[in-house]
Amino acid sequence: MMPAGPYPLLPLPFSLVRTWIRQRSAELQQQRWSHGAACRQSKVALPAVNPQLLNLNRTNLKIMIGTITGHCLLNKHLFILGATDSPCAEAVSAQRKQSPT
């Protein structure tokens, strides 16, 4: 008996289905990142989802994102090297100078 209907006679390869799922997942992830309301400053620095960053472990990803966005302890490192006068960030030291306490 011959099968009736538009479905294929041979099943789709698993690799093809996996590729479709990965592509759709990447599209949805990019849409969510682009159209979400949160993380405004991070979106300026990283306008698109970067698969290379997503392959990093949590510690290295934290260091990389902190360096890209400027939210890291670089001033502390520069203070240890003797390149700056204070281990605090510039915004924090400016707030301390302006506060009446």
Describe the structure.
The chain is mostly helical and 101 residues long. It has two domains: 12-70, no CATH class; 73-101, no CATH class. Helices cover 60% and strands 0% of the residues. It has six helices and no strands. The protein has helices at residues 14-35, 40-45, 51-54, 58-69, 74-81, 90-98.
Work out the helix count: 6
| Unreliable parts | none
Strand content: under 5%
| Largest sheet properties | none
Shape: elongated
Please report the distance between the alpha carbons of the first and last residues: 90 Å
* Radius of gyration from the alpha-carbon trace, in angstroms: 24 Å
Number of strands: 0
Number of domains: 2
Question: What is the helix/strand order?
Answer: HHHHHH
SSE class: mainly alpha
Helix content: 55-70%
Average of pLDDT: 78
Q: Secondary-structure blueprint of this entry?
A:
Layout: H1 14-35, H2 40-45, H3 51-54, H4 58-69, H5 74-81, H6 90-98
